[in-house]
Amino acid sequence: MAQVQEQRHVYYDRDLEIEAYNLSGIIQKFPNHFHEYYVIGFVEGGSRHLWCKNREYDVATGDLLLFNPRDNHFCAPINGEILDYRAINIKPEIMSKVVKEITGKDYTPYFTQNVVCQSDITLFVRDFYNAIIRRAPKLEKEEVLFFLLEQVLQEYAAPFEGIDISEPNQQIKMLCTYMENHFAENITLDDLLEMTNFGKSYLLRSFTKQVGVSPYRYLQTVRLDRVKNLLEQGIAPIDAAYMAGFSDQSHFTNFFKEFIGLTPKQYQRIFTDTEQPPEPAKEWQDDK
């Protein structure tokens, strides 16, 4: 039996400031993490066991996935099946802008359902992805995006302000803010303890339960988001890693690929290449 080749295609649309990507032939597990942007994706092939916000799902071909910013999630293959997956990433400020254009209202949407089984909305996601990789006219891309988001907003979203979301308590929020402001520093558990009246074990358990990830995973995710911004600006990966608080280059590269699915150099090319060729020319292997 021939081995399936793993492929990762990622594109950045400069007209709409939206990222689109396709993963195929993927066996890799994705560890517990969150994003600072919205993710709308669907399973094209294979099946996965997904954990999201303390709930578990078995997702399969045709299922729609909706992640809000900060929705922690991770997944693993079922019975060794390979994964084919397409998705788009939308920054909160871009989402709010499009939402106002669609609804005429200023509000931040919140996806009320993370998994929608066998959803027809996946067709809109695929159409939008294809429009991006074809470098379709801006009008065509905007039209498909509006149809997609209009469906999602009508069926699976509500104003963020109107959702009763369990938030971390003030001490845990303070720790999150501290790590967001000091991400480039060598933060220790003792540093965090000094800001609370917790013991080490209680802090770790309480933080993980309330935030969905451990303090170290939270810090690394914040660093990852910062380093992505630096890479998008054209800063060399080795410098971006240092500026974001990663002290070991090899560890940084492995960590980045584990979460993003690309090496830092591969990710940077999305934003520095002036012309992104149509699929399948955007097929990357690991940088050596």
From TrEMBL:
Q: Which UniProt keywords apply?
A: DNA-binding, Transcription, Transcription regulation
| SUPFAM superfamilies given in the database record | Homeodomain-like (SSF46689), Regulatory protein AraC (SSF51215)
Q: Where is the HTH araC/xylS-type domain?
A: 173-270
Q: Does the keyword Metal-binding apply?
A: no
Q: Which InterPro entries match?
A: AraC-bd (IPR003313), AraC_XylS_family_regulators (IPR050204), Homeodomain-like_sf (IPR009057), HTH-like (IPR037923), HTH_AraC (IPR018060)
| Pfam families tied to this protein | AraC_binding (PF02311), HTH_18 (PF12833)
Could you tell me what this protein is called?
Helix-turn-helix domain-containing protein
